[in-house]
Design goal:
This protein is of the alpha+beta class and 317 residues long. The chain has 5 helices and 12 strands. It has helices spanning 2-23, 29-33, 39-52, 69-73, 281-293, and strands at residues 57-60, 93-97, 104-106, 141-150, 167-170, 173-187, 191-198, 213-218, 234-238, 258-260, 265-268, 274-279. A 7-stranded mixed beta barrel has the order 4-6-7-10-8-9-12. Residues 135-288 form the DUF6590 domain. This is DUF6590 domain-containing protein. Residues 1-43, 64-84 are annotated as: Disordered.
Length: 317
């Protein structure tokens, strides 16, 4: 009888333990019975548990998709894991739940990266010479100054302009900036007046009024080059430190350069510039006479602009 009694006592103790286990609420019972369930069911249950038991949820930063059971049990005391508020960080984190056997990572999209362009400083801007005294400007000097003009936009052209090295957008519109050479023609108390030199992008006087231009050439490299103007071209002489520069140096006036003597420009003495060369007296007198031939006159007739050439051929009938 005693073995039976002992055996019965063992069975009764097992039944008592099973009954006590069944009486306890098992939240993740579904997961324990079916470990091969899809991740969707796990994530859904975990989110439900988080909403019901927010006090038992901890966020554990992790780089892996899951941790072992021992790591999960010691996650609150191990160094490197910290319990924070659920919405404290905006990075990929794992949610630790005391009632679950896994850690479900939550992926939060990071903010889009914004391109920050460095602003131009005074060191990045090209320096145009220096400020000179008014006494240093002589008639016939060729100086280089900073020129700023509005960019013409054809209303029929729907192409949008883009900022370039010489083209900038301001609150008043697009501006074209370039280092322009001018010939000093007259001096006043606070400014001087000069005539600009144009090369028109190497096209010369292809689409310009030739009667308003006179050619100018560097005497060392382009003395005998032809001209498209009605007048003999002028010769420029470079001054130090540009007397021994190469043919392609920016201070050398090439074979496509012309002085427009009908378009004087004003230059203030408190503005930076660079003295590059000058005209001899004979060429200076010729340029002054050309400018005076177009001087303002009360009885002068308005200049008529020549009709532009047709760009497209019309089909005849």
């Amino acid at each position: 009888m005693l073995p039976k009694t002992a055996k019965g006592s063992k069975n009764s103790s097992k039944e008592a333990r099973n009954a006590s286990r069944k009486s306890k609420p098992i939240v993740n019972q579904f997961l324990r019975k079916s470990p091969r369930n899809s991740s969707k069911a796990k994530i859904g249950l975990t989110q439900k548990l988080i909403s019901e038991r927010a006090a038992h949820c901890k966020k554990v930063p992790t780089t892996k998709g899951a941790l072992t059971r021992a790591e999960r049990q010691n996650s609150s005391t191990r160094p490197g894991f910290s319990a924070v508020k659920p919405d404290a960080d905006r990075v990929t984190q794992g949610i630790f739940d005391h009632y679950a056997d896994y850690i479900s990572p939550i992926y939060t999209p990071l903010p889009k990266a914004t391109i920050i362009r460095a602003k131009k400083t005074e060191e990045d801007v090209k320096q145009i010479g220096q400020v000179l005294e008014p006494q240093q400007f002589k008639l016939g000097l060729i100086i280089s100054v900073a020129s700023h003009e509005e960019v013409y936009q054809d209303p029929k052209n729907k192409l949008k302009l883009q900022p370039t090295r010489e083209q900038t957008l301001t609150h008043l519109g697009w501006v074209y900036s370039k280092a322009r050479k001018i010939v000093v023609m007259s001096r006043f108390a606070q400014h001087l007046v000069g005539l600009p030199i144009f090369s028109h992008g190497g096209k010369g006087l292809e689409k310009k009024e030739r009667s308003e231009f006179v050619g100018i050439r560097d005497i060392q490299y382009f003395k005998r080059t032809p001209t498209d103007s009605f007048h003999p071209h002028l010769l420029s002489h470079r001054l130090p430190p540009f007397t021994r520069v190469a043919k392609n140096h920016w201070s050398v006036i090439n074979s496509d350069s012309y002085v427009q003597f009908t378009r004087p420009l004003s230059f203030a003495y408190n503005t930076r510039c660079t003295i590059e060369g000058h005209l001899r007296d004979q060429d200076l007198h010729s340029l002054i006479n050309l400018a005076n031939s177009k001087r303002p006159s009360f009885s002068a007739n308005p200049a008529a602009r020549t009709a532009p050439k047709l760009r497209f051929k019309t089909s005849g009938g």
